[in-house]
Write a structure and sequence with these properties.
It is a single chain. The chain is α+β, with helices and mostly antiparallel strands. The protein has four domains: about 60 residues, Roll (Ubiquitin-like (UB roll)), CATH 3.10.20.30; about 170 residues, Threonyl-tRNA Synthetase, Chain A, domain 2; about 290 residues, Bira Bifunctional Protein, Domain 2 (BirA Bifunctional Protein, domain 2); about 100 residues, Anticodon-binding domain (Rossmann fold, 3-Layer(aba) Sandwich), CATH 3.40.50.800. Helices cover about 35% and strands about 25% of the residues. The chain is built from 19 helices and 33 strands. The strands form eight sheets. It has an eight-stranded mixed beta sheet with strand order 16-20-21-28-25-24-22-23, sandwiched between helices. Strands 2-1-5-3-4 form a five-stranded mixed beta sheet, sandwiched between helices. Strands 6, 7, 8, 12 and 13 form a five-stranded antiparallel beta sheet that branches. The radius of gyration is 31 Å and the shape is globular. It binds one RNA strand of 75 nucleotides through strand 12, strand 13, helix 7, strand 25 and helix 15.
Length: about 650
RNA sequence: GCCACUGUGGCUUAGGGGUAUAGCGUCGCCUUGGUAAGGCGAAGGUCGGGGGUUCAAUUCCCCCCAGUGGCUCCA
């Protein structure tokens, strides 16, 4: 007899040879909600045969671990349907991912109509309720089974030893190379939906074969699927492209060019408020501002390494009578020249050079998206020139600056990422392996000392050095980099950066930190808009106060209230038009003013205002002076909460 | 750049081989009003651009352009 320990804490006895599924069904019934189980910590199928004492813990379909199994199995189901409809299609890989799964096939591109057909076929297989059977084979057998699929053979070559063997899962007449675990049968996969297609490359490398990727999602229950669909609908309401249009924050015009947004007056207010905040902050931290040209000669970008390593990211050259010019994709080369413009002493360090301006990057057209990904990047950029001893301090104060900024804007959900180079793709980077190792170790140590939690990611470094990126998720779940702090070990050599040290010796160990704690203004405003759903904190709201009159006879008092507010630099609009109060409120909600002031007979008579909040809450009869004091305080403090109603 | 999809008045949208819906918004008139659609009326569109098929194209086909999702890339 086997001794099986279940989560109830009791020891159960079963005959040897019993399966996991039989135990789960025995202990929890047919409707246990389990899709697989943890057997002494290892994920196993229900069909797993037990021959030793162990712990068993069911993996429920409504848990994250259970959903991963469902998604993985659903990917198999997708592949089964695809190869049945398109016999020439070759399945490659099909993993579960956050919120769903995908499967990549070598096949002709498919469209929406094809997806419907595939979904239909998948439902047929769900109704047929095929069992997913695990088969263990030696390598030779597996190679025979997948002989016609070079991708599977390659996976075996890459991942599995030449003579180890592995497993495959069979459902109906479909079989896939896979480690599992999987749900017991296809009926578990009922609540799925195919969500889209994409082109993808084998192993994610654009020099490899192009594949067709099909995305889907899958849940244990109908309610979960519906809930997810509802979440996606809700997220769409936050989309900065939608709100940006509604609030007239920016426009993109074909005549100007894609990826080249125009900041409309309301967006410009957001942008300049952010910039003003940054200027104040950086004055405090000891930054000096400069302005440099948007273009420069080829020689500069040769020296910086941009042309050898970053040419694809730059706009094509302009031929002039005195040479070839390029639009700048980064400010750093010019700042290096500012540094090198005069002899520097150790007393000058750290030297912090800041610039508010725009750089232009030739981003691939297919990647452009609203303000999130553009070709004109407005930045609050700076470069810090310092000694090795000062690096930790400077990186630390920038990490803090980022955290403080985010707190001020109400951002809480972000993560740090240490972005490293990829030694396999040296052509993308300045190829000095020992310097990479040194600076990556240094940056990692600094982050550890700061006690900041971070992940590491290979191949995400800048071409000149490793960086700390701060990652966000958009409303629709796509991850993007926001702020960045980068370590540059190459600039000193390329631009001959040095300083006189305490002993009067020339020291050329100048390290450069590139940093943009507020991302680009474009991306930052996109996140800000999605985060607040356009309901910005008062201090950055394009319209801070919208005054609405009850009738035309209140226009004079409304005008008086407006000018009193304007005296205090509050951004205020007046609607004294001949329209109903309800209609005016409805109209102005779209622009999301921080506060609406309703003004009628009562207010005009006793010098008060009625304050209406965005959520409809109301405070009536507030003395005008009290409102002015409150709103100016809220603005001055850059408060992220609206507190006057 | 690559794959798929989409493109109809300022905005949201119906339609689909016989030059086109509706709502919001705009304008005018009525209404003088108290908190998310008061009433009536009017203006506004070469159906993204260019070719082709057809007696006839906004609709079908091809090529561009732009947008959306994804891949690659990246702030």
């Amino acid at each position: 007899m086997l001794k099986i320990s279940l989560p109830d804490g009791l020891l159960h006895e079963y005959a040897s040879g019993i399966t996991v599924g039989e135990i789960v069904r025995n202990a929890y019934g047919k409707k246990s909600g389990a899709v697989a189980a943890l057997v002494s910590g290892e994920e196993r199928d229900f069909s797993y045969v037990l021959e030793q004492d162990c712990d068993i813990e069911p993996i429920l379909g409504e848990t994250e671990a259970g959903r991963y199994i469902l998604r993985h199995s659903c990917a198999h189901l997708l592949a089964q349907a695809v190869v049945e409809i398109y016999p020439e299609a070759q399945p490659t890989i099909g993993p579960p991912i956050e919120n769903g799964f995908y499967y990549d096939f070598k096949m002709d591109p498919v469209g929406d109509e094809d997806l419907k057909k595939i979904e239909k076929k998948m439902h047929e297989h769900i109704r047929a309720n095929h069992t997913l059977t695990r088969e263990e084979h030696d390598n030779e057998t597996l190679r025979g089974m997948f002989a016609k699929n070079p991708f599977k053979i390659e996976i075996m070559n890459d991942k599995i030893g030449m003579d180890v063997g592995s497993s495959a899962y069979r459902q109906g007449n479909f079989v896939d190379l896979c480690l599992g675990p999987h749900v017991p049968s296809t009926s578990y996969l009922r609540w799925f939906k195919l969500t889209g297609t994409s082109q993808a490359y084998w192993k994610g490398d654009s020099s490899n074969e192009s594949l067709v990727r099909i995305y889907g999602m899958c849940f244990y229950s109908k309610d979960e699927l519906r809930e997810r669909e509802r979440q996606i609908e809700e997220a769409k309401k936050r989309d900065h492209k939608k709100i940006g249009k509604e609030m007239e924050l920016y426009m993109i015009d074909e005549m100007i060019g894609k990826g080249l947004p125009v900041w409309l007056p309301n967006g410009e207010i957001l942008k300049s408020e952010i910039e003003r905040f940054a200027i104040e902050t950086e004055e405090h931290y000891g930054y000096q501002r400069v302005t440099t040209p948007v273009l420069a000669k080829r020689q500069l970008f040769e020296a910086s390494g941009h042309l050898p390593h970053y040419a694809d990211g730059m706009y094509p050259p302009m031929e002039m009578d005195d040479g070839t010019y390029y639009l700048k994709a980064m400010n750093c080369p010019m700042h290096h020249l500012v540094y090198a413009n005069k002899k520097r002493s150790y007393r000058d360090l750290p030297l912090r050079i800041a610039e508010y301006g725009t750089v232009y990057r030739n981003e691939l057209s297919g990647t452009l998206a609203g303000l999130l990904r553009v070709r004109m990047l407005s930045m609050n950029d700076a470069h810090i020139y310092c000694t090795i001893d000062q690096v930790a301090q400077e990186v630390g104060s920038n990490v803090k600056m980022v955290q403080d900024y985010y707190a001020a804007f109400g951002f809480e959900d972000y993560s740090f990422r240490l972005s490293l180079w990829d030694p396999e793709r040296t052509e993308k980077y300045i190829d000095q392996p020992e310097n990479w190792k040194k600076s990556e170790d240094r940056l990692r140590q600094i982050m550890d000392d700061l006690g900041v939690v971070y992940t590491e990611s290979v191949g995400e470094a800048a071409f000149y050095g490793p960086k700390v990126d701060i990652q966000f998720k958009t409303a629709l779940g796509r991850e993007e980099s926001m702020s960045t702090i980068q370590l540059d070990f190459a600039a000193k050599e390329r631009f001959g950066l040095s300083y006189m040290d305490e002993n009067g010796n020339q020291n050329d160990e100048v390290l450069v930190i590139h940093r943009a704690p507020l991302s680009t203004h474009e991306r930052f405003v996109a996140f800000l808009t999605e985060h607040w759903m356009g309901n910005f904190p008062t201090w950055i709201s394009p319209t801070q106060v919208q005054i609405i009159t009850i009738s035309e006879r209140h226009a004079d008092y409304a005008g008086e209230v407006a000018s009193r507010l304007r005296e205090h630099k509050v951004r205020v609009e007046v609607d004294d038009s001949d329209s109903t109060i309800g209609r005016k409120i409805r109209t102005h909600r779209k622009m999301r003013p921080a506060y609406m002031l309703i003004i009628g007979d009562g207010e005009a008579a006793d010098g008060t205002v009625s304050i209406r909040a965005r959520n409809g809450d109301q405070r009536n009869g507030v003395p005008l002076e009290d409102f002015i004091a409150g709103v100016t305080k809220e603005i001055k403090n850059r408060s992220s909460k609206l507190s006057l109603v």
